[in-house]
Amino acid sequence: MTVGHKRSAIVTGSSRGIGEAIVRRLAKEGYHVCINDVAANKEGVDKLAAELNKEHGDGKAIGVVADVTKSAEVEALIKESVEKLGPLTVMVANAGIAQVQSALEISDEDVQKMFNVNIVGVWNCYTRAAKQMIAQGPVAEGTTGYKLLGCASIVAFKPFPLLSHYSASKWAVRGMTQVFAMEMAKHKIQVNAYAPGIVGTAMWELIDEKLGEIEGRPRGETVKKYSSELTAMGRVSTPDDVARVVGGFLCGSDSDFVTGQTIVVDGGIIFT
Ligand code: NAD
User: Fold this and answer.
1) Which ligand 1 atom lies nearest to the CA of residue 98?
2) CATH superfamily, with its number, for domain 8-198+238-265
3) Is the distance from the beta carbon of residue 173 to the nearest atom of ligand 1 less than 6 Å?
């Protein structure tokens, strides 16, 4: 059996922020999309699914609550997506958390939590989605292959102080992406990651608040300072800046000969 032209994508952590922008872009590209987040964000998941079904036609989007740190929940997420949307062609392991703290003040529990979401979460998504794709059989001749995508960060290339366990976790995503690219190529599965810089989402609100506290700046000033001083293009990134590269390029056929890469989308903060 071969998988034909109908494409479906799961995007984890997509009730808001970068994940939401990726889901919106993929729906526009004609994908059937599975929105995912943790139970605390179920309302956002359901709202986005309803909105996309209204905009693109009933049955185009579903919302599934699952915690990516739990492999059984990732398996159930994939099962539901395949049952309702058809064969899985794209998995975007986008969910992640951040914490700003001096390395010596980070608790064991915080380290474990960071690695669980940002590393084990991506691992669960890559392994379970790859198994599903292999079981589905090869994609039809002339169609875009299967794609696994992981969310890294600029800190996967250049770590920043006060982001030690976060930087380590994103560096791990970059390494994992390279080895999966090598192992999965024979199954016609490409594996890439994306590395955003300073994106205006809930995550950066948190970083802004904590860094501002430590470095003595009022709320909103840290994100302004870093985006204008560190970014060649002189502004904060929008989730759409990232979604265009992920949903447009990395999930699409223009990237069919790209694998094992971590593509930086940061407006010019780091240069690889
Ligand atoms: P966000 O906090 O707005 O979105 C992250 C989403 O992931 C949230 O909805 C959250 O509930 C979800 N999530 C967290 N743990 C989960 C779990 N265990 N299972 C399922 N979902 C879970 O942040 P964002 O900025 O949109 O971040 C998206 C990704 O981009 C993250 O991996 C983040 O590390 C990465 N990133 C963000 C920036 C930035 O500047 N905002 C920069 C580089 C990388």
Assistant:
1) 34
2) NAD(P)-binding Rossmann-like Domain (3.40.50.720)
3) no
